[in-house]
Amino acid sequence: MIEQANLSDLKAITQIYNDYILERSATADLQPVSTKEREPWFKAHNNSRPIFVYKENGEILGYCSLSDFNPKIAYDISVEISIYVAKKALGMGVGKQLLSHAIDEARGLNLKNIIALIFSQNKASLGLFLKFGFEKWGELPSICMMDNEYKDVIILGLKL
User: Fold this and answer.
1) What distance in Å separates the CA atoms of residue 103 and residue 132, rounded to the nearest whole number?
2) Which of 48, 35, 39 is nearest to 4 (CA)?
3) What share of the chain is helix, strand, coil (3-state, %, to 5)?
4) What is the DSSP letter of 134?
5) Other CB atoms within 10 A of residue 103 CB
6) Fewest C-beta atoms under 10 Å: which of 4, 20, 80, 84?
7) What are the pLDDT digits (tens) for 135-156?
8) Cβ 143 vs Cβ 108: under 8 Å
9) What are the DSSP E strand ranges found in 34-89?
10) Alpha helices, H only, 24-131
11) Contact predicate 42/50, CB 8 Å
């Protein structure tokens, strides 16, 4: 079941996120974060920039956020999407369901563009987004340094 996240979901959301920080595959954060440190991020989301959680038997197995792409008002028609799935739920279709739900919700919010920024080596995420009609809009070569290794970021976009 997918629903809009509540503050009480933040602990599980943070645990999932921290797994990806340690793995270095999906975020440029380098150190695990506390639930308290994630509160400002959570509170920056609202009905027009929601966070969704995928729950099964009351357990959060993944989440998706639609965030401001840029704080300047003219960019309000576009959002950046992020999806994180608990390691134990990989391959179960959680990411697909979250992405499908987010696209539907974005249309309902009258958004015009969804943008995904994905590390070039994250083939699973790139494949998922491409299957849903996202197109490559650009690339940021060597945009960040993680563990003494440069990382490229692929910009994918979907026009709604």
Assistant:
1) 9
2) 48
3) 35, 35, 25
4) -
5) 19
6) 4
7) 999 999 999 999 999 999 999 9
8) no
9) 51-56, 59-68, 78-85
10) 35-43, 94-108, 123-131
11) no
Annotated domain spans of the chain: 2-159
**For residue 82, which of 139, 28, 36, 3 has the smallest C-alpha distance?**
28
Correct CATH for 2-159 of 3.40.50.300, 3.40.50.10840, 3.40.50.2020, 3.40.630.30: 3.40.630.30
CB atoms within 10 A of CB 27: 17
Give 27's pLDDT tier (boundaries 50, 70, 90). Answer: confident
Question: CB count, 10 Å around CB of 70?
Answer: 11
Which residue, 44, 43, 27, 46, is CA-closest to 105?
Answer: 46
pLDDT at residue 23 in the model? 79
Distance in angstroms (rounded) separating the CA atoms of residues 49 and 28: 21
Q: Which residue type, as a one-letter code, is found at position 52?
A: F
Give the gyration radius of the chain's Cα atoms. Answer: 15
d(CA 115, CA 124): 17
